[in-house]
From TrEMBL:
<keyword id="KW-0812">Transmembrane</keyword>
<feature type="transmembrane region" description="Helical">
    <location>
        <begin position="84"/>
        <end position="102"/>
    </location>
</feature>
<feature type="transmembrane region" description="Helical">
    <location>
        <begin position="33"/>
        <end position="50"/>
    </location>
</feature>
<keyword id="KW-0472">Membrane</keyword>
<comment type="similarity">
    <text>Belongs to the drug/metabolite transporter (DMT) superfamily. Small multidrug resistance (SMR) (TC 2.A.7.1) family. Gdx/SugE subfamily.</text>
</comment>
<keyword id="KW-1133">Transmembrane helix</keyword>
<keyword id="KW-1003">Cell membrane</keyword>
<protein>
    <recommendedName>
        <fullName>Guanidinium exporter</fullName>
    </recommendedName>
</protein>
<dbReference type="InterPro" id="IPR037185">
    <property type="entry name" value="EmrE-like"/>
</dbReference>
<keyword id="KW-0813">Transport</keyword>
<dbReference type="Pfam" id="PF00893">
    <property type="entry name" value="Multi_Drug_Res"/>
</dbReference>
<feature type="transmembrane region" description="Helical">
    <location>
        <begin position="57"/>
        <end position="78"/>
    </location>
</feature>
<dbReference type="InterPro" id="IPR045324">
    <property type="entry name" value="Small_multidrug_res"/>
</dbReference>
<dbReference type="InterPro" id="IPR000390">
    <property type="entry name" value="Small_drug/metabolite_transptr"/>
</dbReference>
Length: 106
């Protein structure tokens, strides 16, 4: 269950990062509210998952999901560049996440 909650925490991180971008420096109300609410939910889920998962594993997975998710959202919805170097970087991050999960004892 901790792994599922951790994935949810990571996905919520993607949501708050996207909403933060849409808030234009917290100058737009609803994207700012979404940012703060999903940020709190993401932290709460991360904290819950850390009750049974090792710190290094949980935090790495959480930030990795957020980083790769934000990368994908940036390309899909914000017109950000997609080139071989950026894709390789995302693949390396995902590879690290897989290795972290495989090496975890929890």
């Amino acid at each position: 269950m901790a792994w599922i909650v951790l994935v949810v925490a990571g996905l919520l991180e993607v949501v708050w990062a996207f909403a933060m971008k849409q808030s234009e420096g917290f100058s737009r109300l609803w994207p700012s509210v979404i940012t703060l609410v999903t940020m709190a939910m993401s932290f709460a889920c991360l904290a819950w998952a850390m009750r049974s998962l090792p710190l290094g594993t949980a935090y790495t997975i959480w930030t990795g999901i957020g980083a790769v998710g934000a990368f994908i959202v940036g390309i899909a919805f914000l017109g950000e560049a997609m080139n071989a170097t950026r894709i390789l970087a995302a693949v390396l991050i995902v590879s690290g996440l897989v290795l972290m999960k495989l090496s975890s004892t929890a």
